[in-house]
Amino acid sequence: MKVFSIALTLSSVVFAGSFYSSNETDTSTYEANRPHLHYTAPSGWINDPNGLWYDAKDQIWHLYFQYYPYSEYWGEPLYWGHSVSEDLTHWNYSGIAFSPPKNNTGAFSGSIVVDHNNTSGFFNDSIDPRQRAVAFWTYNTPEDQTQFVSYSLDGGYNFTPYSGNPILNISSTQHRDPKVVWHEESQKWILTLAHSQKYEVLIYSSKNLTSWQLESSFSHHGIMGYQYECPGLARVPIVKTFHSDELPSNLTDSDEVWSNSFFDNGTNSSLPDTAWVLFLSVNPGAPLGGSVNQYFIGDFNGTHFVPYTSQTRFLDVGKDFYAFQAFFNSAGGTDVLGIAWASNWEYGQYVPTTPWKSSMSLVRNFTIRQYAPNPESVELNLNSEPILNLDGQLKNETSFKIYNQTLLPSKPLSYNVSKPTGVFEFDLTFTVDDSYYNNTIFADFSILFRGSRDREEYLKIGYEANAASFYIDRGHSKVSFVKENPYFTDRLSVLNEPYEMISSNLSSYKVYGVFDKNILELYFNDGSEVSTNLFFFSDRNFVGEIDISTKHDKIFIIRNFEFRQLR
Amino acid sequence: MKVFSIALTLSSVVFAGSFYSSNETDTSTYEANRPHLHYTAPSGWINDPNGLWYDAKDQIWHLYFQYYPYSEYWGEPLYWGHSVSEDLTHWNYSGIAFSPPKNNTGAFSGSIVVDHNNTSGFFNDSIDPRQRAVAFWTYNTPEDQTQFVSYSLDGGYNFTPYSGNPILNISSTQHRDPKVVWHEESQKWILTLAHSQKYEVLIYSSKNLTSWQLESSFSHHGIMGYQYECPGLARVPIVKTFHSDELPSNLTDSDEVWSNSFFDNGTNSSLPDTAWVLFLSVNPGAPLGGSVNQYFIGDFNGTHFVPYTSQTRFLDVGKDFYAFQAFFNSAGGTDVLGIAWASNWEYGQYVPTTPWKSSMSLVRNFTIRQYAPNPESVELNLNSEPILNLDGQLKNETSFKIYNQTLLPSKPLSYNVSKPTGVFEFDLTFTVDDSYYNNTIFADFSILFRGSRDREEYLKIGYEANAASFYIDRGHSKVSFVKENPYFTDRLSVLNEPYEMISSNLSSYKVYGVFDKNILELYFNDGSEVSTNLFFFSDRNFVGEIDISTKHDKIFIIRNFEFRQLR
């Protein structure tokens, strides 16, 4: 009730569109524990990314988000907050894009398209075709969830509701998250919507963005949990090259390597240039608890999405990556870029950050690539590459490098970071002696990222040869949230294939990591798996020491370790 | 190498069939930390349960298992160990059932059928039809994995290899775990086999148990991880009753409530009496890390298994339940009973038990039931019920009961266990005020099971109203394995629907738990979800105190808590 009374007091201000100054990147308002590379709102609660689109005229990226600015907890009225960026790394808060009509309601998640050809009739010639932004969102009331359209005549900063709203109403309280894409072959707009508690992704088509026809339902796939949320289709480029080093020995080095399982006819077809990916979020009910984002690779013919296989895959195997959405448009035209909410509904409201609560993931660029999950298979896999522009105000300082160092118990490697900022990236390539796989010895090496003010706090990443898996341990903290929240899973593991088979018993692995105050994104083997997880040290106890060690002789060789601190 | 030299020394003894005395239940050899209700071998390493069958003549249950008796680590020669039981709770070790032909090979996992009608020709009239045991197993050598048959002329204690072995050989090193069932309609034997790294379950049929024809392949379903293992088909009874209390408000109380999603025609068909379930293990690559057992509900027509849906589901959502196998036959005829290995390949070899390593799960009885995972759906679900016979040497002592107690921060409930044994069960029913769901307050209650010798060690189980999920925390231990093994996930969560909707904002949940020295099995809402997890306290620090508490007024009412210590 307290939260709600504040909302009423401030609501008149909200409609002005900007009540926080957009100077969060100004060093004078520097807040020590706030992520620098991951988007956070000035203050208050955020969750799902919404309405992602690229303005090709002004060359600006738009990010909207579920926003309750009055509190560090979710609440209503729930707005679409708005932020813009020229490089996908530095974002400027641009105020509230739009508000729900009533205080005890919400402008729930949705998407934006550029209606270049004015199929909707919302625009006249004065609006540049590249800026004809049309937003689709769910109007959440205590009675139902219906789908609304709003359009912008100023390039995405202010929006006008369509007079014919709602455009879709099935008298359901669980019908939400419209994501619209363009389907070139059928020359139609396609809208996907979660019929959440029926475990359905409803697929609609339209010629004009306001009149929609139900074409099909994709239901009961993957992990179902309590409900489906935030479905979305994207046509993703397929990268056809496949290094011979990565190939299983019984397969040939060719662009046409292709698992029989993807098509019914079982032939080694040439790979197409693209495949469709259906993104689908589930919450609660993830295997790790709470929220998870899965994806399916398949075909979409304008009416039906058919996955190539019935397998279940996760977009990110960490605990903090949810409600992913892809951008409409990209600077490159065919690139599929997207952002997720970097938290988990199990504990997102209780994490120890203030005055902001929750951040977005880094922007990722997605491609489909072939990879070998074991010695006998080649499968398609969605590959993630982080987009980071570090040329601007963030200075890239290479601080620490190691090459070709065999790890020995007697010689642990240690590095002290000068003037720790809590923001850095690292590259790691190592080799492991494969004869320790399925052995009886627990043979691991680990990297401890220790706090500068209190080294008893650390984040641990390692690899163990017998289980052939990476592990992440985020439990070594004095922060009460970390110690006490029973859903804040301490230990996670990540299975990934070797990046390269150097010889019959020597495999190499690659890891790229970004630490950003309290967010860690780990990209394994150039992004064939990603694990995104929050972690929390005591106030301003940034990573100040890096310790690499093993208890086992000569199993691991660090081929390359490079640590780059960012300010 | 040390392990192997011991193997060579003892191998001549092995073939005698029994080199450990079978007195592990004798109190004179009582080992304080050994589970009493979960099967463990006298000493050494065990993994997958094998060859489960019921001898209807002598009314004896047979459990075989992957066994390396010379070490607490997996090794070769790998045997089929053997144990028998009259009540599925008390087991007697019966020696080595059979051995692989060579020392550096293994008699890998497989199954047993009763060849009542002597379709194989292995038996003559002197062998009772109910005891005509035929075993199928994978012969693992460094060169390949091929499928072998052995038969027993003495009711399952000793086995003779079939002269025509192998019965299946596809020149693969990854082709294993034959499980055979009888398909009544086609009057054929059906064998399922994992083509592990191709992500295929191969389905074969036979009239005579030795000549097999490939009928189909079930591939690329569910979580795939690194490889598939231990597939198995079973025809599971469907329980048609559905309590009106459990029904979503928009559905009627009827035996025919049935989700549209299960059949293409979308009608509310009557439920059949049974459905086929395909069990499938994956390791490594489980979402929680390492090993996991999934299942699919569908139809099997004698050649093809077709799941009703493409969803992914887990047989047990804990970390320690793998390589499940169902018994061939049951005392009741149609019951589907089964056992899993209660460990995880990520850390199973390193858990702090000695001289035995690993145990089996309790025997579970499976049915398919309808349940409502959210207010809008009714789905089929595999339900698990533990089989426990506590009438024999284990005495059932009701020690502690609570009825209708509203939890208050000022009045935590505490109970001290007299003469703790480390073996007990409990029943819990509680109600939760649903208005705290999706609220901003982290509102939980928890039960701490504390050690009797050191109460700083405890296992914690709780439920939080905002996330509407159970949690399990097994990390509060002084045991170095628990503190240091990075794969021993501390915190796990379990989502389960309410057992009963008492009113519009009052839900009730049920939990049944069995603690057995270092194994905890938790059955939520009469077994609609189960979570099985190992935990470790210091030596003989058995649970001696139970603390139930909350920090929040009047959200939770303990309707019933009953603790029963077992000796």
From TrEMBL, chains A, B:
Q: Where is the Glycosyl hydrolase family 32 C-terminal domain?
A: 414-538
Question: Where does it sit, as one GO cellular component term?
Answer: fungal-type vacuole
Question: One Pfam family from the UniProt entry?
Answer: Glyco_hydro_32N
The protein's UniProt keywords, in alphabetical order, are: Glycoprotein, Glycosidase, Hydrolase, Signal
Which first-to-last residue range defines the signal peptide? Answer: 1-16
Gene3D superfamilies named among the record's database cross-references: Exo-inulinase, domain 1 (2.60.120.560), Glycosyl hydrolase domain, family 43 (2.115.10.20)
Domain of life the protein comes from: Eukaryota
Residues folding into a coiled coil are: none
Identify its protein family.
Answer: Belongs to the glycosyl hydrolase 32 family.
Provide the protein name. Answer: BN860_00496g1_1
